[in-house]
Amino acid sequence: MSGGGCSIRAIWILTPNDAVAFSRRFAVVEKRWRVAWEAEGVGKGAEMPLPADYEVAAAFANRRRREGTARGSGIRTNLSSVGLDSWVDDPITRHIISLQIDKEEGGGFMLWPVVLQKRGSYYVLVLPLVDPQSFKAFESLLKRPDCGSSAKENGNLSSILLNLPCITGAFMVANVIGDIITGDVAEPEVIVSSGPSVGGLLDSLTGSIGITARSKPSAAPVAAPVASVSSPVGAAQSDSLKGGIRPFDKELLRSFIIGAMPFGTPQDLNYGNVSSIRTTGYSADPLPTDQKQPAWKPYLYKGRQRTLFSSLETINAALYDRDDVPDFLSVSGQLTCRAELEGLPDVSLPLTGLKTARVEVSSFHHCVQASEPTGNKQSLLFQPPLGNFVLMHYQAPCNIDPPVKGFYQLSMVSENEGAFLFKLRLMEGYKSPFLMEFCMVTMPFPRRRVASYDGNPSVGTVSMTEHLIEWRIVSSGRGLSGRSIEATFSGTVRFHPRTTQRVNSSFRSATTTAFAEDSDCEQDITKNGANLDDYLMEKMNKDLQAVDLEEPLSWQAYNYAKVSFKIVGGTLSGLIIDPRSVTIYPSVKAPVEYSMQSPEIIRHVEVQP
């Protein structure tokens, strides 16, 4: 049974209040579970049926109470006891858990392996079908007296799980269900250009640069008004789910499960494919006898034919402005495609500029057959799947100077006041068609609360929040192209006085402190009257070396500023495609459109000394 793929016995979705918000059981798989135990000569399978929803909720709440958090510790501590997942002394038990089901009439049994994934405010539990031998092997681990396990040990948990491919399938099921309940099911974006083509692929660059701080600025501050940012807090959307939990579409999830995993066996977990099949159905046109339909294209497209490409590059840089420390520049990019083509055509896409780009790492979609690079070119041949997909990922060094260069100085005037100076130069050496659409500098202060700032930048606007100051040099709609500018910003930042609060000693135990990412852990800390921020602050500052008043903000978390920008009109790596050489076989009249992608999320790099 362990080699027969993946089948799911049941799925539960629980709220933080330990209530079952959704459940789905598969009777066909449950029958196979009972038959497998009967083949072993015992009827134990009938004694371990799928529990009711209230029994699962009670078992999950009991596990949370006994393990300390919903995920548990994953290691054996002085609070562990025989029968707990932490007794196995393996961190994987934080993600593959067991539930002890107690019956009112006495007795009880164990559910294992239950794949646990937290998405948003919900806990997704997936119970796959495993063979009795693996189940018994895990039961013995819960009772063994010694702790720890060797990688070469046959009876350890890892060796058991490696023989269970259903674990991987269960994680995939939990992941896609989590995407649905959180609304994170969007495809990679491919934007169709509304303007005329310029005869080539327009690429979008999204970058972030870390600039380390230098001491002793020499500019005098100028008074400026203080900006503040606030956002309203939304009310709870459902009376049935209290505490502001965002409800999800149960009918949408139910229909997806029916289409993606009929009778409990996952067939296609791609949300876009399942939704399209449910909406349009399968293609009625028979395939040619000499063609085989690939798994990534479960039905054939019908309609207006076209092919869309979009390129996105992200530059990650660290500018130290020091002779003894070299700057760091790298480019990572992706090529996204949407091919609306009838039948099963082959698309050939040539890449040029490989030597110029000096591509270090590249990976392709599983539908792509990539030729060996010859000289400065490489060809990609693929049968495109349905919808948007990432055709290629790559990483390369940056072959030109970054679009933003300069330095950042920072020092303290007093215990609660610091002086800073920025001097930046934008788009130096960049000519048309390169266009900077957006540029923003962020000064983070994660361990101090910003009270106000003074200073006027030479260009742009400034705003602040509790833990950072943002300087928008170039705003959306006011791009910078064909020229370079110098931007300076000097001033002072004032902080609220430091406050110390004694933290309850009970929070110093390993079982609580090691898992602060669990929301239930944070709730427990708050309920016991301690301030979580102060507690975490104490933990972070515990191992930091002491510094004098001269440079306290330039130590570790304060020694950098972040520059985020967006550029369109070209690539920094030099990797391009030749649009006139894109071919489709069998030949069809399908225009190839090129566009630039404009994502909303911009990645940042944090620079450490």
TrEMBL record:
Keywords: Membrane, Protein transport, Transport. Pfam families: Adap_comp_sub. One of its GO terms (cellular component) is endomembrane system. Belongs to the adaptor complexes medium subunit family. It is a peripheral membrane protein. Its main location: membrane. CDD domains: AP_MuD_MHD. It is found in: Endomembrane system. This is MHD domain-containing protein. Residues 304-568 form the MHD domain. PANTHER family: AP-5 COMPLEX SUBUNIT MU-1. It comes from Triticum aestivum (Wheat). SUPFAM superfamilies: Second domain of Mu2 adaptin subunit (ap50) of ap2 adaptor (SSF49447). PROSITE patterns: CLAT_ADAPTOR_M_2, MHD. The keyword Transport applies.
